[in-house]
């Protein structure tokens, strides 16, 4: 018999939904108590009514808890009115395991390079579709992520893979990552733990986040 999980409720633009009963709620309505600065210490991003926002120049934040294989739900909204062009327009990012970026960007009627737009696995794979909502509207990423596995001597046994729905539209279909995210190039995997913090990027734009929850995926017993 499968374990019973009470489903959450769906979000509307006006109101965030709720998490499934077995999820770890990383941001519900209240505070950033589940988070810390990427270099330690309390996060300095501002929390407002039901959401928080990137504080430009204050650096990335990451979860205190570490996660590996997971189902992750993140809601975000880019600034309205929009500012800037290309990559300089509502840029942030969801870094699985602090290393693998799913791009957050204002890609609504705004051009940039294909593997840098919203929903791209940054610098590796463009999204299958651009399902962006206008600036200021709440958008949703639902992510299924399987982290890489390494042998004891550091060889890659299984690359990371990621499936993503953007506002309910499939945009990454079990995409196999080439390695960690960098600005340019595709560096190879380097060994790391099976669980690492989730990280949100400060890319100097005030991008909002709300209703973040995660469910760990446990491999079935053999
Ligand atoms: Mg980014």
What does this structure look like?
The protein has 222 residues and is mostly beta strands. The protein has one domain: Sandwich (Jelly Rolls), CATH 2.60.120.560. Helix content is 0%, strand content 35%. It contains no helices and 15 strands. It has strands at 24-27, 35-37, 46-47, 52-53, 61-67, 70-77, 92-96, 100-104, 139-146, 149-150, 156-158, 161-166, 169-176, 196-200, 208-216. Strands 1, 3, 4, 6, 9, 12, 13 and 15 form an eight-stranded antiparallel sheet that branches. A hairpin with a 5-residue loop joins β10 and β11 (156-158). It is globular. It starts with 23 loop residues before the first strand and ends in a 6-residue tail after the last strand. The mean pLDDT is 96. Magnesium ion (MG) binds at residues 91-93, 101, 103-104, 201, 203.
Going by helix content, strand content and strand pairing, the class is mainly beta
Could you spell the SSE succession in H and E letters?
A: EEEEEEEEEEEEEEE
Distance between the termini: 16 Å
Number of helices: 0
* Major β-sheet profile: 8 strands, antiparallel
CATH topology term? Jelly Rolls
Low-confidence stretches: none
What is the name of the CATH class? Mainly Beta
- Roughly how many Å is the radius of gyration? 17 Å
List cofactors, ions and other ligands. Answer: magnesium ion
Instruction: Using the 3D structure, state the CATH architecture.
Output: Sandwich
Fourth-tier CATH superfamily name: Exo-inulinase, domain 1
Q: What is the 3D form? A: globular
- What is the strand tally? 15
Give the averaged pLDDT, no decimals.
96
Q: Provide the β-strand percentage band.
A: 25-35%
| Overall number of structural domains | 1
Helix content: under 10%
């Amino acid at each position: 018999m499968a374990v019973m999980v009470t489903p959450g409720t769906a979000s509307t633009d006006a109101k965030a939904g709720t998490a499934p009963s077995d999820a770890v709620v990383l941001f519900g309505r209240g505070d950033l108590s589940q988070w810390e600065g990427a270099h330690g210490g309390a996060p300095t991003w501002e929390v407002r009514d039901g959401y928080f926002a990137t504080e430009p120049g204050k650096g990335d934040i990451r979860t205190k808890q570490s996660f590996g294989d997971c189902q992750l739900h993140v809601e975000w909204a880019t600034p309205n009115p929009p500012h800037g062009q290309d990559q300089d327009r509502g840029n942030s990012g969801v870094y699985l395991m602090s290393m693998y970026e799913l791009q957050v960007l204002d890609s609504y009627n705004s051009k940039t390079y294909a593997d840098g737009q919203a929903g791209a696995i940054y610098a590796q794979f463009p999204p299958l579709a651009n399902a962006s909502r206008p600036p200021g509207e709440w958008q949703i990423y639902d992510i299924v992520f399987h982290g890489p596995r390494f042998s004891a001597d550091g060889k890659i046994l299984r690359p990371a893979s990621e499936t993503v729905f953007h506002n309910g539209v499939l945009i990454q279909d079990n995409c196999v990552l080439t390695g960690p995210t960098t600005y340019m190039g595709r560096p190879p995997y380097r060994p790391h733990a099976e669980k690492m913090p989730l990280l949100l990027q400060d890319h100097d734009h005030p991008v909002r986040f709300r209703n973040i929850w995660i469910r760990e995926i446990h491999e079935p017993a053999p």
